[in-house]
Amino acid sequence: MKALFALTTAAAFTVAAPAFAAPNYLFTIPAQHLDGALIALGEQAQISIGGIDPTLARVWSNPVRGRMSVRQALTMMLRNTGFTFEQIDSRTYRIVRAKQLAKPAAPKRVTPKPPQVKKGPEPARPIFPTEQPKPPEAEIIVTASKQDQELNGYPGTVHIEKIDGIDLGRNFGTTALLARIPAIASTNLGPGRNKLFVRGIADSSFSGPTQSTVGLYLGEQRITYNAPEPDLRLYDVDRVEVIEGPQGTLYGAGTLGGVVRIMPTLAEMGALRGSMNVGRSLTQGGAAGFDLAGMVNIPLAQDRAALRVIGYREVEGGYIDNATLAARNTNRSKIWGARANLRLRAGDDWTLSLSAAAQNIDTADGQYAETDQAPKTHAARIAQPHDNDFKAINLDVVKAWGSLKLVSSTGYVRHELSETFDATGAFGQPGTLAYTGRNDIRLFAHETRLSRRTADGGTWVAGVSLLRNVDQINRSLGPPGAPTALVALRNSKSEIAVFGEATRRVAPQWFATLGGRMIYASTIGELSTSSRAEFEPRRAQLRVLPTVALSWRPNSKTIGFLRYQSGFRSGGIEISGSGLNTADRFESDTIQTLEMGLRIGGSGEGNGARLSGGVTGFASRWSHIQADLINTAGLPYTANIGRGTLYGLEANGQWRVTDGLTLGGAVILNHSGLTKPSAGFDDAGQLPLPNIAKVSGSVNLAWAQSLSESVTLKVDGSLRYIGASRLGTAPPLILEHGETLQADLSVALGAGPWTLTLEATNLLDAAGNSFSYGNPFTVAQGKQTTPLRPRSFRLSARVAF
């Protein structure tokens, strides 16, 4: 490590701060080794920090998030680390060991001298551990608002989940979020095959030509459009933000339910560090698995550039048997992935960030069972594998002029999916048949925006965006190894948009928000063997998506809001449910949502709030609902099923019982129905929308106890209940599933850079049916179930250096 620690940052801004700006800075510094944390603080406050102690690189800092002075930030960061600071002048600080600051000697008796007039400001005295002021309230920033709004100033329902502390969730994908944020729901087809839903906005159980109802982002980059979510592993991820409700104004088409934004940890300037994770898992009645991951952060070019690389490999042991093939634990998944981030400080407050990500998921067989077989067993003549191969690259350019911020992001995604099903008996054909579906998705997205936070608590953002998504679908059917092409469909969708949103104070405690997005969307659909010569595959439309909100902020920890939001999904071309080689249009769908909520208590480290939480009620009207369906022959198709309404109530709370113990919980009540079904879907009238339970909820516990100066014990547990729901809204998919209860528990022992973690998932070994689907060609028999993964244990070790 370093024998001499010294760091210096630039001392001047290129553009002067506005005259009304307070002498505070907005800090976003996660917990990390102390030398790297001090570098980040120096960069963000444009000050110089020096220190000569070589052990700084081995000490873990406290996180610092919020708007505060440099002295407050250093106090928060250095609390209980054994270090403190001395202020040399207004722009220079020095880090020293707390024990080096000896108690002052008793004053000598001297003859008093006449008072003298002081010249200049009195030097700031160092803060001793026994004299540390109460830490300032940490300010949590909602970056998904694209305006860096404070959490307690955002007029909507939002969740921010930190992926730090103990290891629970680090080696999982989005399933790690389900127990913590009940507003998120998911299908359970298997790794890399699932659809996410937020706030009950669920169209169907399958992925096809329709856009997802949730916008999924990796940092600034949109990573899905009409694909299942790629189930990215949460290694080296700082936090996940979830914004509920339609987000058409800021995010465009396809965000009817909300936005899920995964925020990875970016490369750190001037810090050479790394970490390694290794884990071994055992599943009761199933096969073993393992996971291995590593991260390295490398400083480059004299602290003006840094590279961060993450790689991982996992094997999830199978637990489903195939009776026909006499094979056990067939649904094994192999996962490998890597991410890299290169950050450059180009000078004059310009920052460039180039990121790349890749992940492959290969699963050997479906994870469904059948009720006429032994538990956790299905019968199929062939294995039914599925693959999800994901690649992405993105360039972010950021520039700050005081409180004015420019962000320009350009990204490209290549997403390849394939799945195979046992189609024996389909269409009356003899012998064993295999059905294969392949999707090749290419997504390009660009956005440039300007945003600003004003002195009175207001914000504004304005920008332009471009998007193009091309989806090539190929389907085949035939004997294994000799398939016959059924159909090839290509949908190309393009969007050009301008958008803006502003929040302004209109009275001492009241703020108004107004925003809108004008979007031009076009679709071109091509079917290789259409039987309709007059079929017109092109369509275009112009949409305006408004947002209006009124919020009440009586103090810094309370906000009440009333908000109207809207969203839409563009139409497209689909393979008709009436035949193999025919095509039809499906129309655009739209949603309008009104929500009213109250959030109290604030959140974040060191804020002093014992109680926090919120409650939100909402009502939505969803017109011309698009849905990916399955016909009675087992083949997929897409249709507009009608108009639906949704009503819901969500409540969540957190109680910090002691400094080390926190209890939390949430409950969601949903009521939905297809109130005006389209022609051909009359049987679905008044049925609830799919995959959304009327009641769901969770409770969480987090406890930490210091056993010594360097050893900490942490416990994290969750219990989640999901009520009953339906697989779909039209035959043969009117099948029930749900009514599951899952408990997870994690115990971690940390000693310096080492962490040893024991995790238990599905601790109660619940075996409820989470999803009534596994094979489209036999789903109509109503005997398919998807059991929860049996009780599993994982022992892992992590070291940071």
What can you see in these coordinates?
With 801 residues, the protein is mainly β. 4% of the residues lie in helices and 52% in strands. The strands form eleven sheets. The protein has a 22-stranded antiparallel barrel. Strands 9-14-15-12-13 form a five-stranded mixed β-sheet, with no helix packed on it. A hairpin with a 2-residue loop joins strand 44 and strand 45 (754-761). The longest helix is centred in the N-terminal third of the chain and has 12 residues, at 34-45. The radius of gyration is 28 Å and the shape is globular.
Q: Can you describe this structure in just a few lines?
A:
The chain is mostly beta strands. 4% of the residues lie in helices and 52% in strands.
How are the SSEs ordered, and which strands pair?
Elements: E1 6-8, E2 25-29, H1 34-45, E3 48-51, E4 64-68, H2 70-78, E5 83-89, E6 92-97, E7 141-142, E8 149-150, E9 158-162, H3 175-178, E10 184-186, E11 196-198, E12 214-218, E13 221-222, E14 237-244, H4 248-251, E15 258-264, E16 273-283, E17 289-300, E18 305-316, E19 321-322, E20 333-347, E21 350-363, E22 369-370, E23 377-378, E24 386-401, E25 404-422, E26 434-453, E27 459-478, E28 484-507, E29 510-527, E30 538-555, E31 558-569, E32 572-575, E33 583-586, E34 589-600, E35 611-623, E36 626-630, E37 636-640, E38 642-656, E39 661-677, E40 695-706, E41 711-722, E42 725-726, E43 736-737, E44 740-751, E45 754-761, E46 784-785, E47 792-800
Parallel strand pairs: 3-6, 12-15, 19-23
Antiparallel strand pairs: 1-3, 2-4, 5-6, 7-8, 9-14, 10-11, 12-13, 14-15, 16-17, 16-47, 17-18, 18-20, 20-21, 21-24, 22-46, 24-25, 25-26, 26-27, 27-28, 28-29, 29-30, 30-31, 31-34, 32-33, 34-35, 35-38, 36-37, 38-39, 39-40, 40-41, 41-44, 42-43, 44-45, 45-47
